[in-house]
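Risk register update: the risk of archive-format incompatibility is retired. Evidence:
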Amino acid sequence: MTASNPSAIDVSTLTGTWTLVPDQTSIEFHTKAVWVVKVKGTFKALEGSGTVAADGGVSGTIVVDAASVNTKNKKRDDHLRTADFFEVATYPTLEFVVSDAQLSEAGQVLIPGSLTIHGVTKPVTFAADLSVSGDAATVSAEVDIDRSAWGLTWAKMGAGLANHVVIKAHFVKN
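Archived output:
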């Protein structure tokens, strides 16, 4: 079942507690470094969970390991772990806390919440696709964020502040 067909979603089948499966979850980012050089990287999810109430209310959390940043360039990855960016010794995780979810007119699920990066929490809302098969669900989304909103402003040699993030979070029902 996919949220792109709103009438296909039966909230009663989603009601309950869901646990993130970290090794089946992917978090990618795309950005620009040094003028026009495109950079693609990944993070690893540590843990997460979600709850769907009988009335359709949704809450949840996904915790990401900041030190797991991987662009396949050791020197760049080591720099991303410093105080210029994620400062992983002080801020070891990134966290998204879901405050609700609603079906959009386009059939996607609108997910508002709070994203914490580098100790700074900001509201973020994005549209996601939801697919459910039995006791498994996948939430897929793409969102653009400006890292400067979280105080990550290092941008020497034309490095971009805009980041395109692609998330595919896999959950199982408890």
